[in-house]
Design goal:
Elements (H helix, E strand, L loop, with lengths): L1 E5 L2 E4 L4 E8 L7 E7 L6 E6 L5 E3 L7 E6 L4 E6 L8 E8 L6 E3 L3 E6 L1
Parallel strand pairs: 2-11
Antiparallel strand pairs: 1-3, 3-8, 4-5, 4-9, 5-6, 7-8, 9-10, 9-11
Length: about 120
């Protein structure tokens, strides 16, 4: 399984970014996909996830600013991030998991930096 994130970068507060995660080596449509993030000196936290059927979940503080979506034809999951804040600065990781009882696969991460 390989997950490759892209789309990170430097953006000013209030700006937007769209992250993409291209997956290979798995039956993409059968996997729940998620985005997590880890800021310096903090634990990794869930940002959003989308089930194989398209149901979505967001961390409470991010709902309304972030949108997760998937394109099964392209084996890709996206994270649209709007109204970015400096506290959104982190490394963002893509994750894939078949079920709660199986291994979660991780991408290498992409850096998002929001300047004030």
């Amino acid at each position: 399984v390989q997950l490759v994130e892209s789309g990170g970068g430097l953006v000013q507060a209030g700006g937007s970014l769209r992250l993409a995660c291209a997956a290979s080596g798995l039956a993409f449509g059968s996997y729940a996909m998620g985005w997590h993030r880890q800021a310096p000196d903090k634990e990794r936290e869930l940002v959003a996830q989308i089930s194989s059927s398209g149901s979505t979940y967001y961390a409470g503080s991010l709902k309304g600013r972030f949108t997760i979506s998937r394109d099964n034809a392209k084996n890709t999951v996206y994270l649209q991030m709007n109204s970015l804040k400096p506290e959104d600065t982190a490394v963002y990781y893509c994750a894939a998991r078949y079920s709660s009882f199986t291994t979660r696969y991780w991408g290498q991460g992409t850096q998002v930096t929001v300047s004030s």
